[in-house]
Amino acid sequence: AVLPRGLYFEKAHQAISSVFRVCEGINLAKIRSRAKNLCSELDLPVLAREIGKSDKLSLNLFFTTKTHKEGAPFRTIVSERNSWQYELGRFLQDKLKLFPVEDPFRIFNSGEVVNFLKQHPGARFRAFSIDIKDLYYSLPHEGLLACIDECIDSFGAVPFQNTTGISSKGFLELLSLYITSTFVEWNGKTYIQKEGVSIGSSIAPFLSDLLLAKFDRALNVKLGELSVVKTFRYVDDYLLILRCDLETFHSKVMQVLQIFRECLYPLVVTHEMPERNSIRFLDLKISFSENHTCWCYEPRSQKPVLPFSSAHSKLVKRGIVQSCFHNALERSCHHVLEASLLAQSERLEREGYPRTLLISVAEAMHRKRKRLG
């Protein structure tokens, strides 16, 4: 659908105003020159040259529609492509990789949650989740710079300079300039992001992981004093598993939330309680009873799989079926395994996948599992 011009600008203005503010009297060419000159002062001629050659003085801004929300509001999307921030971000990213992310909670997929639950059959767990609101938009600049300064100190200032060719002071100056140069241009005006790091930044994931690792280490010490037996974090989502009875669960949650608010300040956290004794985390639905804990592969997203009528090869479509069945098998407990497989079969059939193909893939997977024992 094509939006009327007036409605488009209204939605766009609302989206921009939620994240950016107008920046009056700013000369973007001077900002780029400042970055270039700083690189020259730090004896980084190649980086200075690349920044000077960059086509764009600001970040790229465009919009997508939140179709799942009432009124279909716009979401702002930012990209560093062809900007001088992209060149500086690449340089910083290469150096940030030197720092290990020592985080007791961080995971990369739901498989680690499944492995933990498998190790505790029959355990009477309770759980709830915590979410960091607008993580990238909320990362505190001072906190980030202090965190990276500590990372350099742990690595060693001299080894860092010998490895990177830049002093710790110079690196922090470049990082500070980068995270405060979140300029975009729209409708004849220049805007700057109100807070945090650009969501389109190439180093935002590195910065958030390093800062949250610091917070999580402090959390880990304090949570040990409560009934929390395991904590998982995926980007900005936490899953906390507690061993307590239903009567004390709510009070324990409130205590844990208070600790999170203290340790993660100034980040803002929200939480989600179980509904009908079940909670969702990543692509899992975890259910609790008095006798055991169940888990089932059940992605939150209702996005359909690739339609069978697409022009993709048969091999690709067979791989999609195999992936759906594999996830159901590996990420569902034996109590709900049959229902999980059935749900994936129905999901595939809705997109036109013939039952003969589903049976063929299932039989092949069964033979392989039988052969491997």
From TrEMBL:
**A Pfam family name for this chain?**
RVT_1
Coiled coil stretches, renumbered: none
Q: Which residues form the Reverse transcriptase domain?
A: 1-286
InterPro entries reported in the protein's UniProt record: RT_dom
Instruction: Report the protein name in the record.
Output: Putative tick transposon
The species is Rhipicephalus microplus
Q: State the taxonomy lineage.
A: Eukaryota, Metazoa, Ecdysozoa, Arthropoda, Chelicerata
